[in-house]
Design brief:
By secondary structure, this protein is of the alpha+beta class. Among the domains are: about 10-305, Beta-galactosidase, Chain A, domain 5, CATH 2.70.98.40; about 715-769. The chain is built from 20 helices and 32 strands. Strands 1, 8, 9, 10, 11, 13, 14, 15, 16 and 19 form a ten-stranded antiparallel sheet that branches. A hairpin with a 6-residue loop joins strand 10 and strand 11 (about 150-160). The structure holds beta-D-glucopyranose. Beta-D-glucopyranose binds near residues 357, 488, 601 and 602. Beta-D-glucopyranose binds near residues 486, 602 and 638. Keywords: Hydrolase.
């Protein structure tokens, strides 16, 4: 854990420059607006360590699979969100000396992500090799209002010299993905043009044929007034630039405004892209930098109105949660049901920007409570639309009759993952997709979703389980062999408790939903059954038989569920037995040693007890928590949040607090030594859950919100807003008690510590501690 960034409730501040930490800072200080995003790279050239990253949502490349040993069933390619044209670049030359912080003495340096208003500010003073001192201040953002646009204000001041400064703002499309499997470049040029004050570059992705036109327009200002300038356009393969030379006196500043637009053929016709990008950029530039920055602040103020969580008395914890909420809102806005939430969002290449089970298991609850209902629904529809491909995917692996196996990693529904133990075995992802349907309907009450879309997905998933689960004549029970549970530090295990539990739950739920849909609309049900040739008698019969006769590993002496058969045969070490120098295990131990060890990467049995807590009594949950928690190394970012929620449920507020800090500051403090690859965006939704479901104790029961609040000693108070079925509530948990304010125009009934409370429109109730 590192203490690199300054603690501030609304900002992430890097004070002073540590080149070894640059890639971590680039990740943490990333910007995005749901449509595009970028790492906090410098505008001017930098020859030190950096990971360049500009991304356009939904634009991907199918990179041919590269594995040591090909196995039948592997997907042909891994889809990757592409590193797209770099639109932020501004080369700076002082006289004839290029400005490059790696070659300067950095006198002062500060990067600051303003989460309240949604921009990144960077300022520094540096001395070049020849002794020229220069000051720079840049402000940039990806606009939430014009979500195809970004803008930069770049001010440069010669501090101890008079002379010529050359500025070359450019768009560079000759970029690579660091994770490219064959060192290929993924973009071809379509067209380009330059003008005195900018131009555009249109690129096409190889294979997928997406086109993106990036246009820029520049304005020069001196003393806040526009400065006429002559420029020299530069055109190279996949590159355009504009060179401007200005004479500036010592202590005087010159500001370059660079507006940029990224338009993708996903949203516009290819023929019109360039013209439209130019029109958009002209429209945005005409508003002026000050105006669009003010619009940005207003758009963020609107987001924060419903999204903010306030922690009083603990600035570190406050900064952590705001950072998580900020990044989630930068990644996915829910406007477009073709998009999803990559585990790294727009902050890095790792995980290819693709969709994982993370979305359903972790992100859906956040969007359900903080955004309009259509946002979570769009996430569900994304999977509904990919059902055909999930059925194809299962077919490739030998399943039949409409069984669906959703991919572990996907962009358009096709499986992209290619490690056999995950691709073929980490099938619990199917369960999370079913659980999200249940979660959505439980939260919103939108039962019509089940007949319209949900049941079709549920039946296809249950069909998969019913074929994947087999009968053991020896046990006289059903078993599920050869799986990998959420704990990826175990592969090819038999009877992973979590996977079997979610599979059986899924079949049970499917049977319930069949009845529900039939009751609501028999004709609709009949139509669906005919469409998917569902033979209710036989297929439901098999689901029910598995539900009744499934084997679940457990240990009666310890009173716990076993993560899988044979788990207790392992040497029973605890995490406290591990020297700090051996962690993270994934970086320090051989894979073989990890697989044989008792250590658990992330919540596994506990993930199941979290999802299905209503089916288990508190003591069972406690015994399992007490057994598994000390064996868990939390080397997946998805782990601490589940532990935080369970610790809070068990009344262990101090442990819940420690887990909360770990999950919320995972990237700010680079806990797992991997933030340089990008931030852990999907686990940020888990951080939100650890506040709302953990300390707030929020659940949905019988169509009502229920709260069982708990406040860490370190906090004076905690408050958050929850949108629920058209109502908006503010919950404030303080030492003296919990206040629930109903901000809506209709009355609402909630459960507070088990007692039902009616709250009038605009009214409030206080439950004293
Ligand atoms: C976790 C998976 C997760 C993936 C993407 C892995 O490290 O083990 O559960 O889906 O990261 O976040």
């Amino acid at each position: 854990m590192k203490d690199y960034f300054k603690v501030d409730e609304w900002k992430i501040i890097e004070e002073g420059f540590d080149p070894h930490y640059n890639k971590v800072a680039e990740s943490v200080l990333s910007l995005g607006n749901g449509r595009m995003g970028q790492r906090a790279n410098f505008e001017e050239a930098y020859s030190g360590e950096t990971l360049q990253g500009n991304y356009v949502a939904g634009v991907y490349y199918p990179d041919k699979t590269r594995v040591g040993w090909w196995k039948n069933g592997y997907p042909e390619y891994f889809a990757k969100v592409l590193n797209a044209a770099n639109w932020i670049g501004i080369d700076v030359t002082l006289g004839d000396e290029p400005l490059d912080l790696a070659k300067c003495e950095v006198l002062t340096f500060r990067r600051e992500l303003n989460m309240q208003e949604g921009y990144l500010k960077r300022s520094f003073k540096a001395k070049t090799e020849s002794g020229k001192e220069v000051g720079v201040e840049s402000v940039r953002f990806c606009s939430m209002v014009d979500d195809e646009c970004g803008a930069i204000s770049y001010t440069i001041t010669p501090l101890n010299f008079n002379g010529e400064i050359t500025l070359t703002p450019y768009i560079d499309g000759d970029i690579v993905n660091k994770d490219s499997n064959y060192d290929e470049k993924f973009w071809d040029e379509v067209s380009k043009a330059t003008t005195n004050d900018g131009g555009y570059l249109q690129l096409r992705t190889k294979k997928t044929g997406f086109e993106v036109a990036t246009a820029t327009k520049i304005v020069l200002l001196q003393d806040n007034a526009p400065l006429e300038f002559e420029s020299t356009p530069i055109e190279k393969e996949k590159y355009i630039g504009t060179t401007v030379k200005v004479n500036v006196g010592a202590g005087k500043s010159i500001t370059l405004l660079k507006y940029a637009a990224n338009l993708s053929s996903q949203n516009h016709s290819k023929e019109e892209l360039a013209n439209k990008a130019t029109a958009v950029i002209n429209r945005v530039a005409a508003k002026g930098f000050g105006t669009i920055l003010a619009e940005q602040a207003a758009a963020w103020a609107e987001k924060w109105k419903n999204n903010d969580i306030i922690i009083e008395g603990d600035a570190k914890a406050q900064q952590g949660i705001r950072f998580n909420i900020f990044q989630l809102n930068q990644t996915y806005t829910g406007e477009d049901d073709r998009l999803n939430i990559g585990p790294k969002g727009f902050t890095g290449e790792k995980y290819g920007g693709s969709t994982y089970w993370d979305t359903e298991a972790y992100c859906v609850p956040f969007y359900l409570a903080t955004a309009e209902q259509k946002v979570a629904r769009n996430l569900l529809l994304y999977r509904y639309k990919q059902l055909g491909k999930a059925i194809e995917n299962a077919k490739l692996l030998g399943f039949k009759d409409g069984a669906a196996l959703y991919p572990m990693v996907t962009m358009d529904g096709t499986e992209c993952h290619n490690e056999w133990e995950i691709t073929f075995e980490e099938i619990h992802r199917n369960g999370a997709i079913a659980f999200a349907i249940y979660n959505y309907v439980r939260y919103t009450g939108d039962e019509a979703y089940l007949g319209d879309y949900g049941l079709e997905v549920l039946i296809a998933i249950s069909r998969f389980w019913s074929q994947r689960i087999t009968w053991s004549a020896d046990r006289e029970q059903y078993v599920m062999l050869g799986v990998t549970g959420p704990n990826e530090y175990e592969n090819n295990v038999n009877n992973n408790w979590y996977t079997s539990t979610i599979a059986v739950w899924c079949m049970k739920y499917t049977l319930e939903v069949i009845d529900k849909v039939k009751q609501a609309d028999q004709a609709k049900y009949d139509e669906l059954a005919a469409k998917i040739t569902f033979d209710e008698g036989t297929e439901s019969g098999r689901f029910a038989d598995i539900v009744a006769k499934m084997y679940f590993p457990q240990d009666e002496k310890l009173g716990i569920y076993l993560q899988q058969d044979g788990y207790l045969d392992k040497e029973q070490l605890l995490v406290t037995d591990l020297p700090a120098t051996e962690r993270p295990l994934v970086q320090k131990w051989s894979w073989d040693r990890i697989l044989r060890s008792v250590f658990i990467k992330q919540a596994d049995v506990l993930q199941g007890l979290y999802f299905f807590e209503e089916d288990y009594d508190l003591e069972t949950i406690r015994r399992n928590y007490d057994f598994y928690e000390p064996r868990t190394v939390h080397e997946s970012s998805l782990s601490p949040c589940v532990h935080a929620i369970l610790a809070a449920k068990l009344g262990d507020v101090e442990r819940a607090y420690q887990f909360y800090l770990r999950t919320s500051r995972l990237d700010i403090d680079d806990y797992n030594n991997d933030t340089e690859d990008g931030c852990h965006i999907t686990s940020m939704a888990g951080t939100w859950m650890s506040i709302v479901e953990g300390f707030g104790g929020m659940r949905v029961k019988d169509g009502m919100l229920s709260f069982n609040p708990l406040l860490p000693d370190e906090w004076k108070a905690l408050s958050f807003q929850i949108g629920f079925r058209g109502s908006l509530l503010n919950i404030r948990i303080a030492k003296e008690g919990t206040t629930v304010r109903n901000l809506s125009d209709n009355s609402v009934t909630v459960m507070l510590n088990g007692a039902s409370q009616l709250i009038e429109a605009k009214g409030e109730v206080l439950m004293r501690t």
